Amino acid sequence: MISMDMIESERVEGNTPTLRLFALLEVIAEKDSYFSLQSLSEELGIPKPTLHRMLQQLESARLIIRDGDGRQYSTGRRLHQMAEKLLLNNTIHGSRRAVLRHLVEEIGESCNITACSGNEVLYLDRVETVAPLRFYLHPGSRVPLHCSASGKLFLAQMSPSQCRRLLEAAPLEQYTPNTLIRYDALEKEIEQVRRQGYAMDNEEFLPGLICIAVLVPGENGKSNMGIAAQSPVMRITREKALDFLPVLRRAADSLAHIEKANAAM
């Protein structure tokens, strides 16, 4: 057990060893790259023997894992799954779904709320259009980052090295003739997304499907939530999809207010 006087870090607080472990996990969850025992000890001011025991407990629970030569740590699959379940269960009903329904009524096309999960985009919620021609993708569906509008937005928030590391973890699969599978071409696209503040999927994942997406604003300048509209090419063109941007951004702002209110509760 970890005694209460063994940790002096202001960022790892708690009245019990369990709460201190949870506080440490919060610090780890904020990181967007691998970390070492040494770097974390220096950052938090926690003695290495104490921190090592805490990391061992988190590792044994499969909440973090070791990578590479065993000296680097990152968040584990169990923690990712926990986060995904929280996001999914939190968007099935309530105010966020109301925003999504209103958006679909305004533009007449299917819309969804997404999050980044590893090297995939996770559909947190989705409302279908009443139009007879549509593509069905239910909440919990996953699509690759590199050929989805939301995925490009999430990639555009990453540093170039982090983005490259994530993309090179697996071959870029070609789903349609429009899918970008060369790293240099995709990086050029991501840089454009970074400048313009929105992203498009121009029949890159499914033939005949166009998608446009924006990020839900986050308090720290980064966001793990996007909102997107999708339509068959028979109803809209790439240029017409741009007309959705003002409405999408209003919906994104509404979701940001909801997230901020929920965080304050």
TrEMBL record:
<dbReference type="InterPro" id="IPR050707">
    <property type="entry name" value="HTH_MetabolicPath_Reg"/>
</dbReference>
<dbReference type="InterPro" id="IPR005471">
    <property type="entry name" value="Tscrpt_reg_IclR_N"/>
</dbReference>
<dbReference type="InterPro" id="IPR036388">
    <property type="entry name" value="WH-like_DNA-bd_sf"/>
</dbReference>
<dbReference type="Pfam" id="PF01614">
    <property type="entry name" value="IclR_C"/>
</dbReference>
<dbReference type="GO" id="GO:0045892">
    <property type="term" value="P:negative regulation of DNA-templated transcription"/>
</dbReference>
<keyword id="KW-0805">Transcription regulation</keyword>
<dbReference type="InterPro" id="IPR029016">
    <property type="entry name" value="GAF-like_dom_sf"/>
</dbReference>
<dbReference type="Pfam" id="PF09339">
    <property type="entry name" value="HTH_IclR"/>
</dbReference>
<keyword id="KW-0804">Transcription</keyword>
<keyword id="KW-0238">DNA-binding</keyword>
<feature type="domain" description="IclR-ED">
    <location>
        <begin position="78"/>
        <end position="261"/>
    </location>
</feature>
<dbReference type="GO" id="GO:0003677">
    <property type="term" value="F:DNA binding"/>
</dbReference>
<protein>
    <submittedName>
        <fullName>IclR family transcriptional regulator</fullName>
    </submittedName>
</protein>
<dbReference type="InterPro" id="IPR036390">
    <property type="entry name" value="WH_DNA-bd_sf"/>
</dbReference>
<dbReference type="InterPro" id="IPR014757">
    <property type="entry name" value="Tscrpt_reg_IclR_C"/>
</dbReference>
<dbReference type="GO" id="GO:0003700">
    <property type="term" value="F:DNA-binding transcription factor activity"/>
</dbReference>
<feature type="domain" description="HTH iclR-type">
    <location>
        <begin position="15"/>
        <end position="77"/>
    </location>
</feature>
